[in-house]
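Handout, section B. The chain below has 337 residues.
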Amino acid sequence: MTQLPTALILMSADTFATQFDVSRLDRLRSLASLCGTFWADSLDHPEIQDQLPEVEVLITSWGVPLLDAPALERLPALKAVFHCAGSVRTFATPALWERGITVCNGADSNAIPVAEFTFASIILAGKRAQVLSNDSRNHRGELSFAASRGKLGNLGRTIGIVGYSRIGRRVVDLLRQLEDVTILLADPYADPAEVTAAGATLLPLEDLLGQVDVLSIHAPSLPSTHHMIGARELAALADHTTIINTARGDLIDTDALLAECRTGRLTAILDVTDPEPLPADNELYDLPNVILTPHVAGSLGAETRRMVDEALADLGRYTEGKPLVAQIHAADMAHHA
């Protein structure tokens, strides 16, 4: 029988309590040999110091400390990190790949609730439901005010997706169930044949903007995508267009968005902002055509256990010497969140 790798769970206390119920701990124990103190929120935890030299596998999530060269020197046997969350940018450093350490994450599972949230937001945007709900406070006893927000309904809409990411792909797939909807996609790295097969049309961003009723952002936060939706891009959107951001706040120029939304010309549904949270005196809070949610689109509560399942599935493949499904390579960091 193959000897199981020695594993340590490294994440915040709240995250550990939420993600690792009895069944998932039992699953982990079947795949790895857990340290005597099998969970810690820091490599400085006094009870794990004698164990660190033996750790081959880290099971990480939110609250994992930075795994830079000094940290990895304390983990000389480390061969793999299985991250029970989405992006690895908060902790992954080049030192991991320089040492040949395998890194996997649960981003595919995290894409599920974000795509669901986005799809629901697109449906509501077609009816102007959230904005009209705000408007109703100033139009009590009336119904006719609905016409002030442009055409209503989801039939015949054109939806623009920016970024054919894990989430963007899922959103496109969900949109296909709608009747008479045109899906346009902007992503310089997307395979045109794959996009066509998914039921969307690939266009440069500048060609897409003026055609859409809803623009949904799903690009990674990179130096090259900072403020990719700025004053020029927002000006290119037609009146009454809804812009949805469930990706990262800095993809949109907040000041430029405020300037457009202040006129009432555009609607914004923002689950992320730049900065996050917005300062208490930011005018976006006060505009009825701006919907703000506190970064809730991604996995929350029990939803985060999907990512544990994904990470443990790859740990099982790792122990059996099989190809991994959710491995992250150094080159991926240039194009993914």
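Note. The two ends are 38 Å apart (CA to CA). Compare this with the example in section A.
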